[in-house]
UniProtKB/TrEMBL annotation, chain A:
The keyword Oxidoreductase applies. InterPro entries: FAD-bd_OxRdtase, FAD/NAD-bd_sf, FAD/NAD-binding_dom, FAD/NAD-linked_Rdtase_dimer_sf, Rubredoxin_C. This is Nitrite reductase. The gene is nasD. It comes from Thermacetogenium phaeum (strain ATCC BAA-254 / DSM 26808 / PB). PANTHER family: NITRITE REDUCTASE [NAD(P)H], PYRIDINE NUCLEOTIDE-DISULFIDE OXIDOREDUCTASE DOMAIN-CONTAINING. Residues 4-299 form the FAD/NAD(P)-binding domain. One of its GO terms (molecular function) is nitrite reductase [NAD(P)H] activity. It holds the Pfam family Rubredoxin_C. Keywords: FAD, Flavoprotein, Oxidoreductase.
From TrEMBL, chain B:
Signal peptide: none annotated. The keyword Ribonucleoprotein does not apply. It comes from Thermacetogenium phaeum (strain ATCC BAA-254 / DSM 26808 / PB). This is 4Fe-4S ferredoxin. Residues 3-32, 86-115 form the 4Fe-4S ferredoxin-type domain. PROSITE patterns: 4FE4S_FER_1 (PS00198), 4FE4S_FER_2 (PS51379).
Length: 426, 152
């Protein structure tokens, strides 16, 4: 008998279960999760907050998932540490669970920025259901809410709060929204759209302190300015949850270092998802890629290898797709770099809020920004992942209604889409 | 093992009838083209898409991949492989229109539905609507074929 043990209960962990069960229907799987809920779709918490999705509609998988996959789910208990020598995981309750194959899928948590008074009442992070629940209690129509961090998570929170009737201010150190994925031209469109939907902005000045006694009452900015608020949402990035591997000998960089089979340096121990530092196909280096498709794919690959298959994950790519008040934004790979060597071609229709930027390097597509028109951009993602040479077929890909027909003939035919053979896709 | 619709590129003349038949099949009047186009308020999009350039034309629909990027990427679990038929199916009521599947599908075979509640839409092989997919049944040139298996 082989004991499969999984720490975590989100995209990477679920991928792990499904990966194991592709070939191993027999051996037991135990799953340990800190959050006391069956697996839910984390990105849905903003939809829950605004009331678009009910709590019982948030499941990432159906209610019978654990039973159908014969998983013993231990929900609401934290794994304290791993003992690789004895092949055991020690829970916070003191209970000890043995494993033969271990998947660490502990994900990430919000960074706490250096802001005075951040522990005050009325300050929330926004990465799990409990925060969304608490916010729903705390915020009412007319509440003044400040979101610190104009990234994807912060802006999703801001959108939901507007739908709840709150008055929302978004602040960021950067003068650009979504600065990790957009360039100034793209960020400007998004900002104009969000401003038109009722969100206020204070960009380019850091918040240094949260005013108020025990409860937050205001923001204080580095330039001395201030702003009265009732609630603050902090969304300034995430970092991997690495506690379980401290002092274990598991190699760690920014995240847990894994090879292309998602295995760590220690035999039998795998890691996947936001906690791992895996391969980035575009950058051709290891790094933490914190998005859900990558988490699932890594988890699934880890699971298959835990079950004894030998499968390789060619690597992930930074990939984001998000809509705010109906405006679709998709980015992938090297999206906003101004580096020499990256050649950008652009198409901008400012009034219509349409922007497309394709980045090429050495005749290959390495990244894109698509705003407003996202139909079929998966073709672009595939061109990036497969590192297909594109020579001078660039302009066709800029059109909003581009298609396979716009690819170079030899690429389109090697795609062999009519038979569905994916020779180009690793 | 699922079937899927394939197109013979050298036979397809780009007449777009497959799109018309697909729209009809996914409307409230699946057997009446006129009603589907004249009476239906929110017209569904065609899940098959004809691409053309010069003499080249082909109708593209979902490959029903065995390792579907769309399913693996779906943020909510709305997409899955139907364990019985093998068809890649979308539970529209669970879809939030985040378009992560769209940025993941290598063929551009899943697209926004249009309409008030924008969700993803893709070929379902007319499961539960008709025996042979409407696009295949209606192609005047026999360019479309319901083929067996997936050779990925
Ligand atoms: C509001 C929001 C919106 C998002 N939107 C998108 C989006 O549009 N597209 C996208 O691709 N990604 C999005 N993401 C990111 C996406 O949710 C993550 O990349 C993905 O959830 C990572 O999955 P994971 O399984 O690696 O880890 P996580 O989802 O972080 O889950 C890890 C789990 O492990 C548990 N855990 C941690 N430590 C322990 C321990 N010691 N013992 C037991 N359990 C433990 C945690 O409680 C948690 O439940 C969003 C995230 C948020 C918060
Ligand atoms: S929508 Fe695209 S990725 Fe999904 S099964 Fe169809 S062809 Fe494959
Ligand atoms: S648009 Fe719908 S089907 Fe596509 S990934 Fe998002 S939730 Fe899933």
């Amino acid at each position: 008998m082989i004991n499969h043990l999984i720490i975590g209960n989100s995209a990477a962990a679920i991928g792990g279960v499904e990966g194991i069960r592709r070939s191993d229907r027999e051996n037991p799987i135990t799953l340990i999760a800190e959050e006391p809920y069956p697996c839910y779709s984390r990105p849905l918490i903003s939809y829950y907050l605004e009331g678009k999705v009910a709590e019982n509609e948030m499941g990432y998988r159906g209610a019978d998932f654990y039973a159908a996959n014969r998983v013993e789910a231990r929900l609401g208990v934290r794994a304290q540490r791993i003992d690789p020598d004895r092949q055991e995981v020690i829970l916070e309750t003191g209970e000890v669970l043995p494993y033969d194959r271990l998947l660490i899928a502990t994900g990430s948590r919000p960074v706490t920025p250096p802001i005075k008074g951040i522990e005050k009442k009325g300050v929330f992070f926004f990465n799990k259901l409990d925060y969304a629940r608490a916010l729903r209690q705390y915020v009412s129509p007319g509440s003044r809410c400040a979101v610190i961090g104009g990234g994807l998570t912060g802006l999703k929170a801001a959108e939901a709060l507007v739908h709840l009737g709150a008055r929302v201010l978004v602040t960021d150190i950067s003068s650009c929204l979504l600065s990790s994925i957009l360039d100034p031209a793209g960020a400007e469109i998004v900002k104009r759209h969000l401003a038109g939907s009722g969100i206020g902005f204070q960009l380019g000045v850091p918040v240094v302190e949260l005013a108020g006694d025990s409860r937050v009452e205001g923001l204080i900015f580095a330039d001395g300015g201030s702003k009265a608020v009732d609630a603050v949402i902090v969304a300034t990035g995430v970092r991997p949850n690495l506690e379980v591997v401290s002092d274990t000998g598991v190699d760690v960089g920014q995240g847990i270092i894994v090879d292309n089979q998602l295995q760590t340096n220690l035999p039998g121990i795998f890691a996947a998802g936001d906690v791992s530092e895996g391969w980035d196909i575009v950058l051709q280096q290891r790094r933490v890629i914190a998005n859900l498709p990558n988490a699932y794919r890594q988890g699934e690959t880890a699971g298959r290898n835990m079950a004894g298959e030998k499968v390789v994950y060619p690597g992930g790519v930074a990939l984001n797709s998000v809509s705010f008040f109906g405006l679709a934004i998709a980015t992938a790979g090297i999206s906003n770099s101004e580096d020499a060597g990256v050649e950008a071609v652009r198409y901008l229709k400012e009034a219509e809020k349409i922007y497309r930027r394709l980045n090429f390097r050495e005749g290959r597509l390495v990244g894109y920004i698509c705003i407003g028109e996202i139909s079929r951009v998966g073709i672009l993602t595939a061109l990036i992942k497969s590192r297909t040479p594109l020579a001078d077929k660039r302009q066709g890909l800029l059109k909003g209604d581009f298609g396979l027909v716009d690819l170079p003939e030899e690429v389109r035919l090697s795609w062999r889409w009519e038979r569905g053979e994916l020779t180009w896709r690793f | 093992m699922s079937k899927r619709v394939i197109c013979k590129e050298d036979v397809c003349i780009g007449c777009h009838l497959c799109e018309i038949n697909c729209i009809t099949a996914h409307s409230s009047y699946p057997h009446d083209i006129w009603k589907a186009f004249k009476l239906q308020k929110e017209r569904p999009i065609a899940r098959v898409l004809v691409e053309e350039k010069g003499e080249t034309s082909f109708a593209l629909s979902c490959r029903q991949c065995r390792e579907p990027e769309c399913v693996k990427s779906c943020l909510t679990g709305a997409l899955r492989i139907d364990p019985v038929s093998g068809v890649v199916v979308l539970a529209q009521e669970r879809c939030i229109g985040c378009w992560t599947c769209i940025v993941s599908c290598p063929y551009g075979a899943i697209r926004p539905s249009g309409g008030k509640r924008m969700v993803a839409a893709k070929c379902d092989l007319c499961q539960g609507i008709r025996e042979v997919p409407a696009c295949v049944a209606g192609c005047p040139n026999d360019a479309l074929e319901l083929a067996d298996g997936r050779e990925e």
